[in-house]
Amino acid sequence: MRYRPSARQPQPVFMATSHVGFRTVGE
After folding, report:
1. pTM for the complete prediction?
2. 3-state secondary structure 1-27
């Protein structure tokens, strides 16, 4: 998954969802 919402388009919702999902899966 090489996507950069911050650089491409600022979407806090997408970033937050991705972060939360990744963190949950990682842990």
Report:
1. 0.16
2. CCCCHHHHCCCHHHHHHHHHHHHHHHC
